[in-house]
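Quick one, tokens below:
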């Protein structure tokens, strides 16, 4: 097996472990995936890996349940830098207007990776939010959403954002979607990262 293939396998394992350890609250293992300056972008929080961990712990203690599932992955390695782009779904359950609901959001994780002192680590995770939906857990229950509030959020994570605002989060409203200037800027940033440019 070539060295490049070994690097790709290592990175893919890190992508998978992110989901497994984060969703299982295995925070010491989860932290080991990041470099010290690593940053996490999400609809509900943006900051360092340590801030993400603390906010995730606090949310879980309050009953917040967010789970992830992964699909295929494309990994490009150039020297000591790499980009991993992985299909994913985010699912979250919470009450919306007193109705217990599930939201499922489909998108991609874009992971900016760097090898430092012989160890790969995450420098930035930026999701792309492509489409989502909301369903009452009991399909016989009627759910009426505030259409004006719903329309304030980008199409790719509109229902996820709606649910998250209902449980007290301030949601970032300019995250990359399937199309648009935000995702085009992200693609340029990804190529710049592989070319050696700073974030």
């Amino acid at each position: 097996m070539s060295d490049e293939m070994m690097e790709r396998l290592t990175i893919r394992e890190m992508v998978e472990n992110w989901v497994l350890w984060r969703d299982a609250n295995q925070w010491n293992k989860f932290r080991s995936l990041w470099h010290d300056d690593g940053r996490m972008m999400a609809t509900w929080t943006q900051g360092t890996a340590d801030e993400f961990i603390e906010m995730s712990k606090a949310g879980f203690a309050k009953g917040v349940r967010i789970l992830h599932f992964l699909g295929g992955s494309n990994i490009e390695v150039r020297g000591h830098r790499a980009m991993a782009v992985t299909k994913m779904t985010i699912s979250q359950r919470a009450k919306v207007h007193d109705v217990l609901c599930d939201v499922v959001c489909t998108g991609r994780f874009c992971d900016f990776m760097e090898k430092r002192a012989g160890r790969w680590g995450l420098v930035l995770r930026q999701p792309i939010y492509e489409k989502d939906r909301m369903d009452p857990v009991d399909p016989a229950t009627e759910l009426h959403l505030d259409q004006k509030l719903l329309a304030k959020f980008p199409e790719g994570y509109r229902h996820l954002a709606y649910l998250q605002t209902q449980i007290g989060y301030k949601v970032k409203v300019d995250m990359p979607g399937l199309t648009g200037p935000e995702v085009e800027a992200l693609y340029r940033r990804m190529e710049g990262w592989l070319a050696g440019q700073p974030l």
